[in-house]
Amino acid sequence: AEGTSIVFITHKLREVKAVADVVTVIRGGKVIESVSPETSVGDLATLMVGRDVELTVSKAEATVGDAVLQVRNLVVVDDRQQRVIDDVSLDVHAGEVLCIAGVEGNGQTALAETLLGLRPVHSGTITLSGIDITHAGVKEVLEAGVGYVPEDRKKDGLVADFTVEENFMLDGSFSEPFAKGVSIDFGARAERSKKLIEEFDVRTPSSTTLVKKLSGGNQQKVVVARELSRDLKLFVAAQPTRGVDVGSIEFIHESIITTRDSGIPVMIISTELDEVYGLADRIAVMYRGRIVGIVPPSTTREQMGQMMAGIVPEGIAA
User: Fold this and answer.
1) Which of 63, 106, 66 is nearest to 88 (CA)?
2) Cβ distance 93 to 128 under 8 Å?
3) What is the largest CA-CA distance in the chain?
4) How far, in Å, are 18, 45, 162 from residue 31 at the CA level?
5) Please, are residues 26 and 58 in contact by the beta-carbon 8 Å criterion?
6) Do the Cβ atoms of 149 and 244 come closer than 8 Å?
7) Under a CB-based contact definition with an 8 Å cutoff, are residues 221 and 251 in contact?
8) pTM given for the model
9) How many CA atoms lie within 13 A of 29 on its CB side?
10) Cis peptide before 177 (omega within 30 of 0)
11) Could you state, in chain order, the average pLDDT of each consecutive group of 10 residues for the chain (318 residues)?
């Protein structure tokens, strides 16, 4: 409005349509086309990816089983002894996606890190398939069957100077198919990597390419492929599509629903409401370290916004 020219770079199509006067789509380092912001999100996505993209998550009704993860009265404190998780109780059932929603910084990350064993529990309990993992370390939690996609893939999910092959074996380097005794089975590692690259559509020159040379979407696919290829009892993913293009988002969402449909319980932590509504069978809303309520995805955006601000709307059970 003051006459300043602005170049706004984003892959979030809602933001594009909200603020742009002209939309220029770049793919593969080349300008594909410049269009009006009135262009539909479907057409924009097609220009971005080069093919038709399914922007809504296609899924059947969940077949929900027993509670696999049970969290009871969980309290976690930070270095200042302030509660970052404050008396949280929840269940995640076999065959369902439970999404944890909320404004970033309200305890969602701390909850994921606590489940993985990265943060100590002050009080309360965590059980997985009836086994107490409240005070288990990271290695024990992974071996118990928890798959984990961290919110920052570059900092916590990958080793940038390792190859794609080496990143695939990060949390399984001491066991089959990557190792025989104390030795790495390089042949089995290469074969496993080839299979995962094909199955998860990782776009890489080869399995021996350094992972830092891949695009952000393909780096995320490496993390997701590694975790979902393990024998899991629970899959936890924090911001699974952050910084990822719409084509990779589509694939990752499909992989999450396939995991759910195989009977594995899934917990997704996301600040993207479109993602939450698309994936969730139930939504737990967090505010200042507490669960404000657990609601169905039929809950309106207005009600969800109120809950994310710590207000329980009329007709919503706290």
Assistant:
1) 106
2) no
3) 67
4) 21, 14, 32
5) no
6) no
7) yes
8) 0.86
9) 1
10) yes
11) 94 88 92 94 87 79 96 95 96 97 94 96 97 95 94 93 94 78 86 93 94 92 93 95 83 94 96 92 96 94 94 78
Q: State both tokens at 129.
A: 């398939």
Kindly give, in sequence order, each residue whose CB lies less than 8 Å from that of residue 62, ignoring residues fewer than 6 positions away. Answer: 95, 96, 97, 260, 281
Retrieve residue 253's tokens: 């969402």
Residue 133 token pair: 């993992």
Distance CA 288, CA 279 (A): 24
Q: How many residues does the chain have?
A: 318
Strands (DSSP E) along the chain, which ranges? Answer: 23-27, 30-35, 67-77, 83-93, 97-101, 123-128, 131-132, 146-149, 179-180, 183-184, 234-238, 266-269, 282-287, 290-295
- β-pairing, 123-128 with 67-77? antiparallel
Distances (CA, A) of 203 to 64, 84, 248, 317: 34, 38, 11, 45
